[in-house]
C-alpha cells in the first residue's frame, strides 16, 4: 500500500490550544489512531468527519483522556495530559464533552445537573452555581425547564442541557461527538443553533458530525479521517468543493447524495 500524504490547505495554527503529536493507539491488533498530528488553535472550530470506524470518537476520547494512548503526546493549553488524580479531574473539567447520548443524571433535575460539576469540581458555592446554571440554561433556550427531570424533556432539550452542563465548567475546549445523530430531525437545528452561537462566541470546538451544513457554516477547518489516519484537512469550502483524496471524494459522494 502506498503512503497517503496529508493534504494541508490551512496554515499551521500558531497558538495551539489542543496539540496532538504523533499519537498512536491500538485496540488489540487494531491500529485505531495512526500517527495523528493535529493542532487546534484557540477559538478554532474543527469539524471531524469520516467513515464509521475511522477513529473519530476515539480521537475525541483521547483528548480528555477517556482513552489512553500508546505513544505520542497530547497537550492542552501548553500542558501535557495528566495521567490521573486531581490533575486529571481538572483537565476533564477544562475539556467539555457532549456525546450522542445525553448522559444527564436521571435522578437529578435539569438545574441540579448543571450545578453539580460546578460545586463538586470547581468548588463553587451553591448560590453562585445556581445563578450560573440558570443563566446558561437561558442561553441554550431551556431556562423554563430548570426544575424538570431529564426524562420530561425532548431529546433536543436534553442535549442543550448537556451543553449547558459542560459550559458550566468554563471549559477551554468543547468536544462534540455526533451531538445530533440521536435526535429527531426537527430537534437537530435547535442544537446546531446553540453550537453555532458558541462558535460565534469564540469557543474552541472539535465537532464530529455528519451535519455538513454546520461544517460549512461554522467550521474553520474540516479534518477528514479514514482508517485511523487524518487523510485530508482543509477549509470547508475547499474540502467540500474540491476534496483531494479519493477516500474523501468517495465519502462525500455517499453522504451528499443521500
Ligand atoms: N473500546 C474498544 N475496544 C475495542 N475496539 C474499539 C473500542 N472502541 C472503538 N473500537 C474500534 O476502533 C475503531 C474506531 O472506533 P471509533 O468509535 O473511534 O470510530 P468512529 O469513527 O467514531 O465511528 P462511528 O462513525 O461509527 O462513530 C472501530 O473499528 C471500533 O470498532
Ligand atoms: Mg463515533
Automatic annotation (TrEMBL):
Name of this chain's protein: ABC-type polar-amino-acid transporter
Listed transmembrane segments: none
Chief place where the protein resides: membrane
Example GO molecular function: ATPase-coupled polar amino acid-transporter activity
Species classification: Bacteria, Bacillati, Actinomycetota, Actinomycetes, Kitasatosporales
Stored SMART domains: AAA (SM00382)
Reaction equations catalysed: a polar amino acid(out) + ATP + H2O = a polar amino acid(in) + ADP + phosphate + H(+)
Family recorded in the similarity comment: Belongs to the ABC transporter superfamily.
Localization of this protein: Cell membrane
PANTHER family on file: AMINO ACID IMPORT ATP-BINDING PROTEIN, GLUTAMATE_ASPARTATE IMPORT ATP-BINDING PROTEIN GLTL
Top-rank taxon: Bacteria
Coiled coil: none
Keyword Nucleotide-binding: yes
Entry's Gene Ontology cellular component terms: plasma membrane
Amino acid at each position: 500500500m502506498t503512503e497517503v500524504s496529508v493534504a494541508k490547505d490551512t496554515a499551521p495554527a500558531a497558538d495551539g490550544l489542543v496539540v496532538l503529536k504523533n499519537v498512536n493507539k491500538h485496540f488489540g491488533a487494531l491500529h485505531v489512531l495512526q500517527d495523528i498530528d493535529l493542532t487546534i488553535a484557540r477559538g478554532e472550530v474543527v469539524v471531524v468527519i469520516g467513515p464509521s470506524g475511522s477513529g473519530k470518537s476515539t480521537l475525541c476520547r483521547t483528548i480528555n483522556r477517556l482513552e489512553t494512548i500508546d505513544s505520542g503526546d497530547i497537550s492542552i493549553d501548553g500542558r501535557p495530559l495528566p495521567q490521573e488524580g486531581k490533575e486529571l479531574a481538572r483537565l476533564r473539567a477544562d475539556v467539555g464533552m457532549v456525546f450522542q447520548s445525553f448522559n444527564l443524571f436521571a435522578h437529578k433535575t435539569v438545574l441540579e445537573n448543571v450545578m453539580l460539576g460546578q460545586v463538586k469540581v470547581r468548588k463553587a458555592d451553591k448560590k453562585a452555581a445556581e445563578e450560573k446554571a440558570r443563566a446558561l440554561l437561558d442561553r441554550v433556550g431551556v431556562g423554563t425547564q430548570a426544575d424538570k427531570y431529564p426524562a420530561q424533556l425532548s431529546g433536543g432539550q436534553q442535549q442543550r442541557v448537556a451543553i449547558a452542563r459542560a459550559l458550566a465548567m468554563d471549559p477551554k475546549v468543547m468536544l462534540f461527538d455526533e451531538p445530533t445523530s440521536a435526535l429527531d430531525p426537527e430537534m437537530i437545528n435547535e442544537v446546531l443553533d446553540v453550537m453555532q452561537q458558541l462558535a460565534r462566541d469564540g469557543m474552541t470546538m472539535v465537532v464530529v458530525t455528519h451535519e455538513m451544513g454546520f461544517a460549512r457554516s461554522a467550521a474553520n477547518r474540516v479534518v477528514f479521517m479514514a482508517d485511523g489516519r487524518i487523510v485530508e484537512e482543509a477549509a470547508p469550502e475547499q474540502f467540500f468543493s474540491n476534496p483531494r483524496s479519493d477516500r474523501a471524494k468517495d465519502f462525500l459522494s455517499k453522504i451528499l447524495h443521500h
